[in-house]
Write a structure and sequence with these properties.
With 308 residues, the protein is α/β, with parallel strands linked by helices. The protein is built from 13 helices and nine strands. The longest helix is centred in the C-terminal third of the chain and has 19 residues.
C-alpha cells in the first residue's frame, strides 16, 4: 500500500541527486514510493539512480530522451499508485515531517485538493537567500480570480495533491513547457481548495540557470495566458486559443544563454548583498563575465568591492 507517490524529474543532476533522494526516502509517518524520470541525462545521473534503486525498492526509475520537465512529470504522475502525489525537484530537499504533515492535512479536510508549505531558497553553495511564504486565503483568492499576476504556492516542489483530483482535471498539460505548475493549480482549485502549512518544510536550491531565474519573460507571458484560459473555461468558453499560444512559447536558442545566466547570477548576488557581500561580489563578477554589458552587475560589483 502506498500513501504518497513522490514524483521527480531530473536532467544532469548527479552532483546533488543523493541529498535529494535521501531527504525523500528518509521521510517518516507515511508509506511512500519515489518515481524518478531521468530526462535524457548525459552525466552520472543514471548511475546514481541505479545505485540507490538497488538499495531501496521504493525508488522507481524511468528514462526517456530529453523532453523537458512537463512531459517528464506527465509520464511520472501517470505511474503514481499513491493516494496522494507529492512533487519534488532534483537538487531540492524535503525537510523532516513534510510528507506526513501534508498527508494528514489532506486526510483531515476533504475540501482540500492540495497542500503546500513555506519554502527556504538557498544558493548553489547552500547559502540562505530568502524564504517564500504564502497566506492560504491569498493563495486561494488569486487562483480563483485568475487575475494576472497570479499567486501560486511557495514552490512547485512544495505541493502534495490528491491523485484523484490530479486525474480529474487532466494533470499537467504538454502545451506548457514553462509554468506547467501554475496551469495545474488554477484547474485544481476548481475542484476544491489549497491548504497551507505554516512551516518551512521544503528547501529549494537556486542555480543561475534555473528556469524561474532565467526565463522570467516566458513565465510572465504564460501567466497571462493561464489567466485567460481560466476565465474562458469558467465562463463556458473555449480555451483552445490560449492553449495554442502557450504551446508556441518554447526555450530560446542557446545564443541567448549567456545573458540569461548573467541575470541568474545577478539575482543570487542581489539576495546575498546584505547578508554576505563578499559572496555577492563573486556572483556579480560571474554575471559580468557572462555578459559584460550587464551594467547593474557592474554597479553592484563596484559597491561590494569598495565595502571589502
Amino acid at each position: 500500500m502506498v500513501d504518497v507517490s513522490v514524483v521527480m524529474a531530473v536532467f544532469n543532476g548527479a552532483d546533488t541527486l543523493a541529498a535529494t533522494l535521501d531527504s525523500v526516502l528518509s521521510q517518516e509517518g507515511c508509506e511512500l514510493e519515489c518515481i524518478v524520470v531521468d530526462d535524457g541525462s548525459t552525466d552520472a545521473t543514471g548511475r546514481v539512480l541505479a545505485e540507490w534503486a538497488a538499495r531501496d525498492s521504493r525508488l522507481r526509475i524511468m528514462s526517456q530522451p530529453n523532453s523537458g520537465l512537463t512531459r517528464a512529470l506527465i509520464r511520472g504522475c501517470a505511474k503514481a499508485r499513491g493516494e496522494f502525489i507529492a512533487r519534488q525537484d532534483a537538487g531540492d530537499t524535503s525537510l523532516p515531517g513534510r510528507l506526513a504533515g501534508q498527508m494528514r492535512t489532506l486526510r483531515a479536510d476533504d475540501q482540500s485538493v492540495a497542500v503546500t508549505c513555506h519554502t527556504q531558497f538557498v544558493g548553489p553553495k547552500a547559502e540562505p537567500l530568502y524564504t517564500s511564504r504564502v497566506a492560504e486565503d491569498e493563495l486561494n483568492e488569486s487562483l480563483h480570480r485568475v487575475t494576472n499576476p497570479l499567486r501560486g504556492p511557495s514552490h512547485h516542489g512544495s505541493v502534495t495533491m490528491r491523485r484523484s483530483a490530479y486525474v480529474a482535471v487532466g494533470g499537467y498539460r504538454p502545451q506548457f513547457y514553462f509554468a506547467q505548475d501554475l496551469d495545474l493549480w488554477t484547474r485544481l482549485v476548481e475542484h476544491g481548495r489549497f491548504s497551507v502549512l505554516a512551516d518551512v518544510l521544503y528547501r529549494a536550491r537556486l542555480e543561475p540557470g534555473a528556469i524561474s531565474g532565467t526565463h522570467t519573460a516566458e513565465q510572465r507571458l504564460l501567466a497571462g495566458l493561464i489567466a485567460e484560459a481560466g476565465r474562458m473555461r469558467r465562463s463556458g468558453g473555449d480555451e483552445a486559443v490560449a492553449l495554442a499560444r502557450a504551446a508556441c512559447i518554447q526555450p530560446v536558442p542557446a545564443a541567448n544563454q549567456a545573458a540569461r545566466l548573467a541575470r541568474g547570477n545577478y539575482f543570487i548576488g542581489s539576495c546575498l548583498l546584505r547578508s554576505a557581500p563578499a559572496s555577492a561580489r563573486g556572483y556579480f563578477g560571474e554575471a559580468i563575465r557572462r555578459d559584460p554589458t550587464h551594467w547593474r552587475a557592474w554597479v553592484r560589483w563596484l559597491q561590494t568591492s569598495l565595502r571589502s
